[in-house]
Write a structure and sequence with these properties.
By secondary structure, the protein is of the alpha+beta class. The protein has one domain. The protein has seven helices and eleven strands. The strands form three sheets. Strands 6, 7, 8, 9, 10 and 11 form a six-stranded mixed beta sheet that branches. The chain has a three-stranded antiparallel beta sheet with strand order 1-4-5. A hairpin with a 7-residue loop joins strand 2 and strand 3. Helix 6 runs antiparallel to helix 7. The termini are far apart. InterPro entries: Extensin-like_C.
Length: about 240
């Protein structure tokens, strides 16, 4: 009977699955491209309009509005925006942002997605206000002079083959910063002037890439020499374009 024990153990060992079989992971699902081809979306009637694919859930939209409220922003919800000339343009759940933070005005207000406003408010709170406090006389930032806000149009300076993030409420352009001492810092090419104005512009532009996935400005191309373009375009792996 002793010879039966090794035979039984051998049979059990053969029947057991190998470690590789037990731990082999399931195939990883393919992650869809977050930037679908614009021509396909525009010509295929069955395709979901691009702006509708970015519609926030009820929970996410409520959470965003709560964060803005806690930050002290002045805003109001707006009716959904669409464009009869281009089905992909629009904002499913837009807001009109008048003040991203207490004391910082956007003259005339700006329509955008809530998430764009949230990133703008945090960037102003965490980086722009502290940078302004280091300027001569420590002036308070009181206003952002906007360039383009929501607009159904193609990108500029790159051939215009795709729609701009402005067309989805994901982008906000800043033409100038205004301060409590009546000074104004206009966005313009500044190269090695060595003054605090250049330092401020470089500082706010560099830190913007911590909150926005695209930051363009003077030096990117001629179309961006007079403003900072900030957007939250969704990209794979949170990749960012900062130029």
């Amino acid at each position: 009977m002793r010879w039966l024990l090794p035979a039984v153990l051998l049979a059990l060992a053969i029947a057991q699955p190998s470690p590789a079989q037990e731990t082999r992971p399931a195939p990883r699902p393919q992650i869809p491209d977050s930037s679908p081809d614009m021509a396909t979306a525009a010509t295929d009637p069955a395709a979901t309009p691009r702006h509708a694919t970015q519609r926030e859930s009820d929970f996410d939209h409520a959470a965003c509005r709560l964060e803005l409220t806690l930050l002290g922003a002045d805003f109001s919800e707006q009716a959904p925006l669409t464009d009869p000339a281009h089905r992909d343009c629009g904002i499913a759940r837009p807001i009109l942002l008048r003040r991203p933070l207490p004391g910082i005005e956007i003259p005339g207000g700006a329509v955008m997605r809530c998430d764009t406003a949230r990133h703008l408010a945090y960037w102003l709170r965490d980086f722009v206000r502290p940078a302004a406090a280091l300027l001569p006389g420590q002036p308070r930032l009181v206003a952002l002079e906007p360039g383009t806000t929501y607009q159904c149009r193609a990108t500029v300076g790159t051939g215009g083959e795709n729609l701009s993030e402005h067309a989805f409420g994901n982008a906000f352009d800043i033409a100038a910063f205004r301060f409590s001492d009546a000074t104004r810092i206009q966005i313009t090419p500044r190269q090695d002037s060595g003054d605090m104005i250049e330092a401020f512009q470089r500082a706010v532009r560099g830190t913007a890439c911590l909150h926005f996935t695209t930051v363009l400005g003077p030096g990117t191309n001629a179309a961006h020499d007079n403003h900072l373009h900030l957007d939250i375009k969704p990209r794979r792996g949170d990749w960012r374009l900062c130029q």
